Amino acid sequence: MKKAKPRMGQIDYVIFYTVFFLLAIGVVMVYSASSYYSIYKMHDSMFFLKRQLLWSLLGISAMMVMMSIDYHYLKKYTRLMMVACIPLLIAVFFFKDVNGANRWIQLGPLSFQPSEITKYVVVLFMAMSIEKRGEKIKSFRGGILPYLIVSGFYAALILKEKNLSIASVIMIVTLIVLFIAGAKITTLCFGVVPSFVAAALFFIFSEPYRKARLLNFLDPWQDPVNNGYQLIQSFYALGAGGITGLGLGQSRQKTLYMPEPHNDFIFAIIGEELGLIGCTLIILLFVIFVFRGIRVAMNARDTYGKLLATGITSVIAVQAIINIAVVTGSMPVTGVPLPFISYGGSSLVINMLAMGILINISRQVENNKNLKV
């Protein structure tokens, strides 16, 4: 007997508008942060704004499409996506490195970062597989270990690209999904987490540039011209902004003091121009998003939806936490963009596509009224 098609309810408008608000702030701040750099490098103050607007429109289109497609159809293509990610992650080594890292596939004026889609594909696989595995997830060998191996494999490929940050995001999100799926917290806390910490320390100290970043994070002024430079400029930006900021467009650090201010350190420019009030608003929007994402997961109609919503929400939350922590000097400098706000094509479009999936899950909750404000 054929399964009846799930009845679609209302979307979670809080997530919908929160994402659009973050996206709008991102477009404005990319223009503000990049205008001086664009004139100097590209001879066009709106160079990055035009590209960000284009990517935003593509991202919105991708989100709208995924909002209307039942997320269960993704199961049919998950294994294919898992396989496709492997040659894509390897293909980056055939293209010229950028600042010593091989993370992008260059196609003329366009570039694509395979690691951005891989982190969501891993979430898709875990949600699909754990739903089938059921209670076995509570055991280490038959439940937790297989997912650590799969996630670790993709994280290792990404690590080879010299992208410890996204590799870390994948492993952290893996732990979160395993915990929500029912894995024993004692096994995770006393067995898996210490192993992760030991592995992270090994990879940090095995690469001179990562070791230098860690040491300079502890005291950036010991090498203010090289490894500590970007973090020091971030401190100057945040300090200059104070409570209310210098005003939109009035940043001084973006005038070639901060390297590529529209990318990973855009939060520092927000702090300088919009002050503590602007930074607090950004953080509040992410908190609202995470809270609503958790509610969607709690009310999802099946285990697959619950784990998928958890994974998607976790990816955004972990990246936002890492980015803000880096900019404020709370952890070593690493290249994680601020979701929806930092400049970037593949990252933005893929994040928006994932938002479409999350909103689609919100349309199929057990009780759609639970998601009203």
Main β-sheet description: 2 strands, antiparallel
Task: Tell me which oligomeric state these chains represent.
Answer: single chain
What is the SS-derived class?
Answer: mainly alpha
The total strand number stands at: 2
Low-confidence stretches: 369-373
| Mean pLDDT over all positions | 88
Q: State the domain count.
A: 1
Terminal Cα span: 38 Å
Based on CA atoms alone, the radius of gyration comes out at 21 Å
Spatial shape: globular
The H-and-E topology, N to C, reads as: HHHEEHHHHHHHHH
| Biggest β-sheet: strands ordered side by side in the sheet | 1-2
In DSSP terms (H or I, runs of 4 or more residues), the helix count works out at: 12
What percentage of residues falls in helices of 4 or more residues? 55-70%
Strand content: under 5%
Q: Which features would summarize this protein structure in a list?
A:
single chain; 2 strands; cell shape; mainly alpha; 373 residues; disordered C terminus; FtsW/RodA; 12 helices; two-stranded antiparallel sheet
